[in-house]
Design a protein that fits this description.
The chain has 477 residues and is α+β, with helices and mostly antiparallel strands. The protein contains 19 helices and eleven strands. The protein has three domains: 103 residues, Beta-Lactamase, CATH 3.30.450.20; 169 residues, 2-Layer Sandwich (Alpha-Beta Plaits), CATH 3.30.70.270; 173 residues, Hypothetical protein af1432 (Orthogonal Bundle), CATH 1.10.3210. Strands 2-1-5-4-3 form a five-stranded antiparallel beta sheet. The protein has a four-stranded antiparallel beta sheet with strand order 9-10-8-11, sandwiched between helices. The chain has a two-stranded antiparallel ribbon with strand order 6-7. Helix 7 runs antiparallel to helix 15 and helix 11 runs antiparallel to helix 12.
């Protein structure tokens, strides 16, 4: 066997069976030449001894942990610091069937050079942190949690009778794609970090918390029943509820399964946890996205003039136009949803811009114009409101084609969006906003007439003006 480092060594053991084929112990049959120079242990003291006898005499090489969790023919890989040698090793345990007799090999690979080297980086607050190379190999760079490689190694190492029951928790963040699409990947990354922080504060030190995919996490809990694991899941969900990230409400779907017998296959337990997680996600994801939109809408009402009163006034104005134009039920429903969610994308715009007194500069205005695109991505993946995703995207288009995002003009713009544009502009003009002083109703109608054929559909503009004058006359009568 090839030795990669002068500090590497290996040992070979022969399994011992009873006459009826029952495994009882291992017998040490071979020690590599480098063993004595590295460990200082005379090979003659341990060669041809049973592993149980070696364990009773010395534990400096990590035999005891391996012996008490021994599984014949199993592949085992774990990390060990040997205090007497002041060196770190990865120990690979494997079965060699290539010879005439069955052999178990313990191969000690020196990784001290990885432990000693480190790199520095700055965290989000500018603090300088240091990561050992081993951490780089086994840690997720974004969240600081363990990665998939480490999880798989620990799953193999801890899959022993001594650790039963072993629970697995799989978690998947609901709506992460929505967050990335609507608010950018930096917000998505911040969401992942917040989830990692919540999980780190919810589990024990001995639990293995790993990020194994873009939005997926697995937690390995040794000596933990499924019932206890479910209680921990509940605690994590409550912490997510109580700790939103700015305007992002965090929701995670979980699946839990436990291994209670050494005869159970751990891969089957993992599959069960995964299946349960996906089942819960199908049930919870839709509601979680709707809940997120409601939460965003509530937050938006607190920082802008997009209040419930604004929505109710828009609903009143558009309903009158719908009655006058005899719109279909589908168009009426689209108008209703558009009134409620048209500016939800403003949640992704800086609060300082939204609350600024006076006119916006060019850069600020360009930022505000992005809200229709952000709103499009927010509602796109939510079935109950996805029917208006494109209407949200184009609700600031103009009849003359000079609106934004500048995709459509005149009758290319859907009728629902053209009706809404009139109602929205009128309501903004006759009510106070940070950007301009309110107008009288007559002044607002004069502005709409002036913009007919430019900003607004000329026919609909006249219908709207006539309708508003009729209402005013009725109120005066």
């Amino acid at each position: 066997m090839e030795i990669q480092s002068k500090y590497d060594f290996y040992l070979k053991f022969k399994p011992i069976y009873t006459k009826d084929g029952k495994f009882t112990d291992y017998l040490l049959t071979y020690i590599s030449e480098s063993f004595y120079q590295i460990t200082g242990i005379n090979p003659n003291y341990i060669i041809n001894k049973k592993l149980s006898e070696i364990v009773a005499e010395t534990d400096g090489l990590g035999f005891r942990e391996f012996y008490f969790n021994i599984i014949p023919n199993a592949k085992v890989k774990y990390e060990l610091y040997i205090k007497e040698l002041d060196r770190w090793y990865i120990i690979n345990v494997l079965t060699d069937m290539s010879t005439t007799q069955e052999l178990m090999i313990m191969y000690y690979v020196d990784i001290s050079h990885l432990k000693q080297r480190s790199i520095s980086y700055r965290d989000d607050e500018g603090k300088i942190l240091y990561l050992k190379d081993r951490d780089i190999l086994y840690r997720d760079k974004l969240t600081g949690l363990y990665n998939k490689n480490f999880f798989e190694e620990e799953l193999s190492r801890l899959d022993t009778k001594r650790q039963l029951p072993i629970s697995l928790i799989m978690g998947d963040i609901n709506g992460l794609k929505l967050i990335n699409d609507a608010f950018g990947h930096s917000m998505g990354d911040s969401t992942l970090k917040r989830v990692a922080e919540i999980m780190a504060n919810s589990f024990r030190d001995e639990d293995i918390i790993s990020r194994v995919g873009g939005d997926e996490f697995i937690i390995l809990l040794p000596k933990t029943t499924e019932e206890v694991a479910q209680e921990i899941v509940g605690r994590v969900q409550r912490m997510c509820e109580a700790n939103p990230l700015d305007y992002i409400k965090i929701s995670i779907s979980f699946g839990v399964a436990a291994k209670t017998s050494i005869d159970e296959d751990m891969s089957s337990v993992l599959k069960k946890a995964e299946d349960r997680m996906y089942f819960n996600k199908l049930r919870e994801s839709k509601e979680a996205k709707l809940d997120m939109i409601r939460f965003l809408k509530e937050r938006l009402e607190k920082i802008t003039y997009e209040t419930k009163s604004h929505y109710e006034r828009l609903n009143y104005l558009t309903k009158m136009m719908a009655d006058k134009l005899d719109l279909s039920e589908r168009e009426r429903k689209e108008l209703e949803l558009l009134c409620e969610f048209h500016d939800i994308g403003k949640i992704g715009i800086s609060k300082n811009i939204l609350q600024k007194d006076g006119k916006l500069n060019r850069e600020e205005w360009e930022s505000v114009k992005r809200h229709s695109e952000i709103g499009y991505y927010i509602v796109k993946g939510v079935k109950d409101v996805s029917s208006i995703d494109e209407l949200i995207l184009i609700h600031h288009e103009r009849w003359d084609g000079k609106g934004y995002p500048g995709l459509l003009k005149d009758e290319e713009i859907p009728l629902v969006a053209r009706i809404f544009a009139l109602a929205d502009a009128y309501d903004i003009m006759v009510n106070d906003t940070p950007y301009q002083e309110r107008m009288t109703k007559d002044e607002a109608l004069m502005e709409i007439r002036a913009q007919a054929g430019k900003q607004f559909d000329p026919y609909l503009a006249e219908v709207f003006i006539t309708l508003m004058k009729e209402i005013e006359e009725e109120q005066l009568a």
